[in-house]
Amino acid sequence: MRSLLPAVLAALLSSLVSVSASAQRLECVPCTYDFGNVITGTSVSSSIQLTNASTQALTILSKSEEGSAFSFGNFPLPVTLESWVSVELPVIFAPTATGYTAATLTLISNTSNPILTIDVAGTGTSTAAASPQLKISPAKLNFGSVTVGSNTSLQATLTASNAAVTISSDRSTSSEFAIVGLNLPLTIPAGKSIPVTIQFTPGSSGADPAKVGFISNATDSPTLEPVTGTGTAQGSYSVSLSWSGDATAVGYNVLRGKAAAGPFHQINTALDSTTDYTDATVAAGATYYYVTTAVNAQGEQSSYSNVTEAVIPN
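Below the sequence we write its predicted structure tokens.
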């Protein structure tokens, strides 16, 4: 196996080249969400994915909501997001009266466009009128690049609204995506959530957008989750990385992207206790960009190191 050795990564805690504040932005997925029908006197929670879509860290400073029916879950502020890092914002709908209601959630960050708004809605219903609904979050899953013949997994969350939901079967529009570890049939009590694991196993090179779904007694069945991933052929090349260590670190993460500005996706499956790593999942003719982060004993992760480029021959 031929090996490429790019330039040694700079010290882990050194900063990336700074960008203007105007390049910073906080994004939400989804930015609008309808909780559907929920029995008055009960509550249902869901999650909004927040992403720092820039090459510079940003801080969410404050949050606010309209009306008494909607509230935030456990989300202490301030919170700082590094470049292309995401976090789940929990939102709760607890109707006290029947009928449709809507509200706007507002987040303030330290960017040049500091205000991010999220529109939420829901309908309070009586017990007799309630019908079960099944929601899935996040709104979509992206598995990134995965070597052909190997697999990777991500988690989603299923939430039952109004009444208990019984899932009778699952399905996928592609053989490369599978729902694993879910013993069916399965009943989720009203207002409760369960995690589900979705696995991507590419059988050939290239992108594969698909949907996985759950068949249930919910009125909105089937409940579908868009998923995507890219199969990468394993060639005869590898990339050897090494970097300067940090005295406070208990381990390191290695992240890879297809552009110098990101986004970067973690490629090590467990914390690396050494200061070197070999990436054997590269494709001939591709160009990759790598950064590393240091993790201390408290689980705190440093900012990205400087970016290192690796050009793979054809």
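The two ends are 14 Å apart (CA to CA).
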